[in-house]
Amino acid sequence: MRTWIMFLVKSFIIFDLDLPVSDCSFVGYTLQYRDLSIAETSGASVSDPKDILRWLYWYPFRFIIQALPIRVVYLIGNIEGTILYHFSKKRYKSLKSALSSVIKKEDLATKNERGIIRDALKLFCQNELEMFLYAKLNTSLIKNMVVCEGLSYINESLKQGKGVMLLFAHFGANQMIMPAIGYRGYKMYQMSAPPTVWVEKLHNKKFSSMGKRALDIRWEQELSLPVTHINIFGSLKEAFVCLKRNEILGIAIDGGGGKSRVAVDFLGGNALFSTGAIEIAMRTGCVVLPVFMIKGRDGRHRMIIEPPLEIIKERREGAVEKNITAFVKKLEEYVLTYPSHYLNFLALRKFMEDIDGIPFIIKNGG
Fold first, then answer.
1. b/e for 158-169, b at 16 or more Cβ within 10 A?
2. How far apart are CA 28 and CA 10, in angstroms?
3. What's the alpha-carbon Rg for the chain, to the nearest Å?
4. Chain centroid to CA 327
5. Which of 341, 187, 314, 180 is nearest to 254 (CA)?
6. How far is CA 130 from the centre of its chain?
7. Residue 362, SS3?
8. Predicted pLDDT at 161
9. Helices 113-133 and 340-356 sit at what angle, rounded to 10 degrees?
């Protein structure tokens, strides 16, 4: 056991890459494959130590996780997060910086800064492991993993015949909203960006063939979810069509996509939110339901569907900003209550700001 744990630690230190999304958590296994060609199995060239670790992570480790009971998967995620907390100084520093956007400096001591960061890392690792489970999810399994509150709001809203928009943020395990809705019998479309877009976005980073293959596998996992994906970088026609058919459209409002943004009050400062989701809602007259995913100590999720937002549908001055503010106020309440659920995203947006020049929080009053 001691040897296994030390191998875990070494694997995390080696594998703590600059990219704060895929490939950032890893569990090493002392498995030997005498007659197995890594390159032939993965279809990718594996030459350096990090690529070997990537292969181990995305192939044998992924299959092992898929075979384990959910409670064991969450336990492994907790171990991963604890290892990152103790040994990844770069990641700790980025999350600490992000936490300053949520909690004022003078309040950090009473808010248990280290505990929040540790919980954020555990949540991050558990979310990553859940991604491996997408392909094996089903109705029975998802009901054990996600407890839903407020489904009646969806049912009542669909009776209006104008479609329903589930509006959320990159808060907690937001991707689990898709299977939680889809496996409960609802027809859902999801505005999303393929993970492979990172090859284009991170133009200064050279991706190995195994690194690209890892992004492909991640996308394959997401495509296995019971929703229809609509590429945010493509045509939005299908988004309007699904609402016209009185179906469900899921959109994250705080992503980096979209051409237009407005600044609204958020966490004591100003933050830029995309206008795309609200503009779709205003044009279609669909019902907008805020959704938030909370992670319990036992690993289970609690999906909270809030009552409909009161959307100003008239195209008058300031209407878009007021509509976005209505959602952001709710998001702020959740972030202040569960700061660990938003830290990883804030760190990611800061990372991307240094690359594409698009900020999220443009002014902080803390």
1. beeebbbbbbbb
2. 8
3. 21
4. 18
5. 341
6. 11
7. strand
8. 98
9. 80
Q: What is the pTM of this model?
A: 0.88
Q: Assign 110 a pLDDT band (cuts: 50, 70, 90).
A: low
Beta strands in the chain (DSSP E): 146-149, 164-168, 188-192, 228-231, 248-252, 261-266, 269-274, 287-295, 301-305, 361-364
Question: At 43, which amino acid appears?
Answer: G
All structural domains of the chain with their residue ranges: 2-364
CA dist., res. 248 & res. 153, Å (int): 12
For 266, phi and psi rounded to 5 degrees?
-160, 125
Which string of DSSP letters, residue by residue, matches 277-319? HHHHHHHH--EEEEEEEEE-TTS-EEEEEPPPP----S--TTH
> Interior CA angle at 97 toward 94 and 103, to 5°?
140
Q: Could you tell me the CA-to-CA distances from 160 to 157, 163, 169, 309 in Å, in that order?
A: 6, 8, 25, 15
End-to-end CA distance of the chain: 45
> What does DSSP say about strands 287-295 and 164-168: parallel, antiparallel, or unpaired?
parallel
pLDDT of residue 46: 56
Angle between helices 49-56 and 2-15 (to 10 degrees): 120
Residue of 161, 145, 118 whose CA lies nearest to 293: 145
> How would residue 266 be classed by pLDDT, with cut points 50, 70 and 90?
very high
At 274, is the secondary structure helix, strand, or coil?
strand
Question: Which residues, listed in sequence order, are joined to residue 363 by a DSSP beta bridge?
Answer: 270
Give bridge partners of residue 294 from the DSSP assignment.
Answer: 302
Query: How many whole angstroms separate alpha carbon 4 and alpha carbon 30?
Result: 8
Q: Does residue 153 register a pLDDT over 80?
A: yes
* Cα separations in angstroms, 189 against 53, 112, 159: 34, 39, 18
> Rounded to the nearest 5°, which phi and psi values hold at 263?
-95, 130
Whether residue 276 contacts residue 257, with contact meaning beta carbons closer than 8 Å, is answered with yes
Write the DSSP string, 190-223.
EEE--TTHHHHH-TTSPPPHHHHHHHHHHHHHHH
Whether residue 143 is predicted with pLDDT greater than 90 in this model: the reply is yes
